[in-house]
Design brief:
The protein is of the alpha+beta class. 25% of the residues lie in helices and 11% in strands. It is rod-shaped, with a radius of gyration of 21 Å.
């Protein structure tokens, strides 16, 4: 299946969100046809899983406790223990990697949003 359940709902002109207690909240109600209601019932678990994945915290540099932004630069990693102190916090070797840290072994979720 190439289309996701959420994209099917979007194509039908409705949005869905998790109520937090296992129910789906779908709006606008006026757009719900019988076929769409049946589709939602049959794909409820898939829709909930997609919503959960879409809302999962991202494991990238922007959400890492090691991110530093001196002078509001793009972002530098303070976890690089392999660099000598001479390579200061703004040195190009400390720049966040091209994959935004998705493969970083030093990633630690920041308790605060930046």
């Amino acid at each position: 299946m190439t289309a996701t359940a959420l994209s099917m709902l979007s194509d039908a002109g409705v949005t869905a969100r998790d109520s937090g207690d296992g129910r789906l909240l779908v709006a606008p109600v006026e757009a719900l046809t019988d076929d769409l209601r049946r589709y939602i019932r049959e794909h409820k678990n898939e829709i909930l899983a997609e919503l959960e994945a879409a809302n999962a915290p991202s494991t990238n540099c922007q959400h890492c406790i090691h991110l530093r932004r001196p002078g509001k630069a793009d972002g530098y990693c303070s976890a690089r223990e392999d660099l000598l102190p001479a390579y200061g916090p703004s040195h190009p070797l400390r720049q966040c990697p091209a994959d935004e840290g998705r493969t970083c072994a030093s990633f630690v979720w920041a308790a605060r949003w930046r």
